[in-house]
Amino acid sequence: MVFDSALYLQFFIGLMAILNPFGLLPVFIGLTSHQSHVERARTNSVAMLTVVVALVLVLLVGSLILKMFGISIDSFRIAGGAMLVLIAISMLKGQLSEVRRNPDEVSESETRESVAVVPFAIPLIAGPGAMTTVIVYAAENPEWPHLVGFSAGIVACAIICWLSFRAAGSVVDILGQTGINIITRIMGLIMMAMAVEFMAQGLKGIFPVLS
User: Fold this and answer.
1) What is the 3-state secondary structure (H, E, C) of 130-148?
2) Mean pLDDT, to the nearest integer, of 70-77?
């Protein structure tokens, strides 16, 4: 078994589209507005470490959880694809989907002293969409070399997110809200295509006559 660089690149691009750090820059600035520069940097680092740990953990045990509840990978593809469609629709509108964050979590975060782990890392970054994508890829490619490749992709995504949030103020000033919305819509389009592919594969698995 050898590494499949094309597969890992596909995983990396898809996961980056879902994480969409540029779309979350205004949220990060808002959540850390009361923090000093040092505290904001610490929040960023803790959040990215949490994202890596959470997604790698899901990568390793996600398939076992599906088996535990008797859920087939094809059923999970369809359900996960449908959820990604909801997130993608919001992104195409330049909005943050309530699948990733609902009004109750917004209210709670306003009174929370530390926002690094909850709600920023989970569920804003490593939310249902990212976890669904990781589980699907791991279930389809359970061999250890592939899991190592996917783990490297997760770490690479986290590093890019860390760099983006590290320079949050400057990036927002350069891109502006319009630029951020454009990037968010492009990422939403990529996510929509992934969602359709997930659902198509799931339907073919359940209904072989569609193949």
Assistant:
1) HHHHHHHHHHHCCCHHHHH
2) 90
